[in-house]
Fold:
Amino acid sequence: MSVSRRTGSKRLVGTAAAIAVAAGVFAAPAVAAPAERGGGHEATRQAMNAAVKDGVPGVVLQAKDRHGVWKATAGVGNLRTKQPRSTEDSFRAGSITKTFIATVLLQLEAEGRVSLDDTVDEWLPGVVRGNGHDGRRITLRQLLNHTSGIFSYTDDEQLQSDVFLPEGFFKNRYRTWTPNEIVKIAMGHRPEFAPGTDWGYSNTNYTIAGMVIKKVTGNSYGDEVRRRVIEPLGLHGTYMPGTDATVPRPSSRAYSQLAENTTGKIYDVTEMNPSVANAAGEIISNSGDLNRFYSALLRGRVLPAEQLAEMRTTVAAAAVDGRYGLGLIENELSCGVTVWGHSGGIHGSSSVAVTTADGKHSLAFNFNGDWSGDPVKVVEAEYCGTK
Structure:
């Protein structure tokens, strides 16, 4: 799920809205890097090229399977200079952050420091309260699998104006948002449903989860993700930027229409303080690191077996055309292959990272635009050979 204004973007591989863009807006030809080893990715290459033709400025992708690693790019990383994307590009990965946050809480559970059946109020007394919200009735598990019913702060109209429309974005792009401020916005609305009675994607759930991590450990969620996941797995291109508005190089520019799809105007939104995304979506990573993370996770290298089983215990989630576990989405593709992972959208960036249940065939890619292209087709092409 994106932390963007697009409310229909909750599918695992559907973070980019399928909005038509006039032909010829991006005139640069699609350029694909040669495979490092192996082959058999022609359908994927064609799906990447199709995304660029549809209006995505550029794509960076890495696939890893039994044949080895395949890296490819298409389109450009800079609309002004026409510089191509790098296969090593760093990018904002949005809600892929959620899998990292869920992993930390599950590790804490394995250590006996917290139970996912604890209520939110046990750790954050009085924080989730108001307009029908009641943290005494919501468990940590319900935060992680989006069955809490808590209103998603990114659906608040004032926040959308402040963050996702041009005037608000350029006024507030360097503004720091605190977790308490974010939760207060959500508490100004009614819950979507009673806890445990339905499923509804809410970015507020993971902001609260990040606050719980700090309460349990005494450290920020970013520090705990670094110590527990990033450093042990050697994810050298992955980090939690906090309030840092920049993306480290190598990286491409990020572009958005800022909810003005009807005008076709494109804005460079590369620099922004990602604190508005918080524990729901601030992470920066690259395709290689995301493949390494999800493969290691599904292979049992990150969580004990009991906690991995909990993470993979899913509930029906129609909005993602699949099932949602604890920060992890299960999707069955058209050819019967099941993939596990997450998508992520944030200003100017749409990303997907998935792997098979055995962690042996992984795919991660990024569009450096957030208004066009169909990520579903890229995933289907890689695993099913269709485009």
User: Anything to note?
Assistant: Residues 1-38 have pLDDT under 50 and may be disordered. Residues 163 and 169 are 5 Å apart (CA to CA). DSSP finds 13 helices and 14 strands in the chain. The longest strand covers residues 338-346.
